[in-house]
Each structure stands twice: as C-alpha cells, then as structure tokens.
Write a structure and sequence with these properties.
binds guanosine-5'-monophosphate, 23% strand, two-stranded antiparallel sheet, alpha/beta
Amino acid sequence: MVALLAKRFFTNVQNDAPPIATYNDLKRPIATLPPPKKINDFLGIWVYGLFLRKDGRKWHNHAVICYLCDKIDFSHSMKQLKERILSDGKCFDGGILKVDNFINHQMDPVLMREMAEELVRRFSNHSINKVITIEASGIAPAIMVGAALNVPVLFAKKKMPSTMENMLVTEVFSFTKNRTYSVCVSSNYLTADDRVLFVDDFLANGNAAKGIIDLVEQSGATLEGMGFLIEKGFQRGGDELRSRGIHIESLAIIDSLDNCTITFR
Ligand code: 5GP
C-alpha cells in the first residue's frame, strides 16, 4: 500500500523528467544494489533514488521510482510460487513433485520471469557473466535469469552432437529417471574467463549440480552460485552443496511430501 501511494506521488511529481533511460536499462544497476530495508519502503525508494543519482548516472527518476515500486515487495514471487505448488503441484511416490502445468510442461512465463528476477536479486553481490543449466527443464528459468542479467545462457546437452568442438563431458545420475547419462558443453562457450551461475528447476540430491561443478572445473571457469526454483529439503543435495561453501538459493524449499502433503520450510 505504501509502495502504491509512493508510486502515485512520485509519478505526479516526476513526470516532467526527460526520458533518458529506458525501463529495461534500469534493471541491471538495480540488480546490483542491496535490497531496501523492509521497515520503510517509502524511505527505501528515496535512498535508492538518491543512490542512483549520486552514482553519477542521470537515470530518469520517474522510471526509477516506478520500477522500484513494482519491485519493492520482494517476497511476492516466492509467495506466488508456493501458492501454485499447493494448488497445482501433484505428489508422486518416491518424493517426486510434478509441476507440469506451470513449470515443467506448460509454463507460466510471468511467474517464471518474476522468479528469475528474485534469483538475480539474491545473487546481486556476485559478478556473473554467464548462466549455465542442463537441458531440458532448466532452460526456461535459466534463459529468464540470463535475460534479466543481460548475459549469455549455456545449456549442457544430453545428446552429444558429432559436430561439437572441444567437448567437455561429465556423468549425471537422474533421480527422476533412475539412470546415469552423459552431458556435454563445448569449451568454446565455457572458458576460464567465465563466472557462472547455475540455474535449474529442482534441487533434489544435487547430482545435476555436481555434474555442472565438474564441467565448470574442467573448463577453469568460476562457479559464482546455484539458484533453484524448488528445493526438496528432505533430499541431501542442498546440505551437501552448502557444506562445500557454494552460494545456494532456492525460492521454495519443501521439507516433506509425506502422505502427499506438501510442507514448506
Ligand atoms: P538432482 O540432480 O538434484 O538429484 O535432481 C535435480 C534434477 O532432477 C532437476 O533437474 C529436475 O529436473 C529433476 N527432479 C528432481 N526431483 C524432481 C521432482 O520432484 N520433480 C520434478 N519435476 N523434477 C525433479
């Protein structure tokens, strides 16, 4: 409500400012800032506005403020994701959650974009120049994150093209398919200059993540962090990766799917 009033107020006050930056231009510098204090959104908007202007950039204030007002409730996308999991998610034996009508088969692009922006915010203190994922279900969230960061998105392929140059290969055990498969990337696209963020739909036992760690190590790139839409906290992947000191972020953590009841952390 405060954010909405502030949006109205500033829209009226600032609408004579010349449009010297586009709405999209604003995403990158804002993504690199720390989140505002939740105590007072109104003050947060001012602090951010001043910060951006002090920075020497002549941003269009009206756009800055509207953008910030839209983004001020940072928990929005997570609330929405949890609500969708509860309303549309289906549990299967063996602790599998199906989210086929908004993530894994049919996709909700608006929610996907909001989740990506939340991941970008959580990794805002990292310098990321590439997003990496594994086909197929990681591609949608990864490409949204890549678009928000304005960096390329690389996906590890499950089939090895005979035409791929300088192939790096690793093995991944699939929890849902109960088999091991090879994934590959070309070292033309994953190099020692890259600082990568791995993005995937689910974190379960962490096997896909470990495969990516191996590929990143083979290439000499730096792993900045790993972001997931849904983590199944009752499987060991999250604990294992965090204990290695990797920055892990998951938008929704499920502690239990026992008796087909979804319990969030
Ligand atoms: P992990 O490698 O962490 O064991 O499993 C992660 C991968 O398996 C993800 O890429 C995801 O596609 C798939 N996965 C693991 N658990 C689930 C689940 O409960 N539901 C769905 N839809 N995919 C899962």
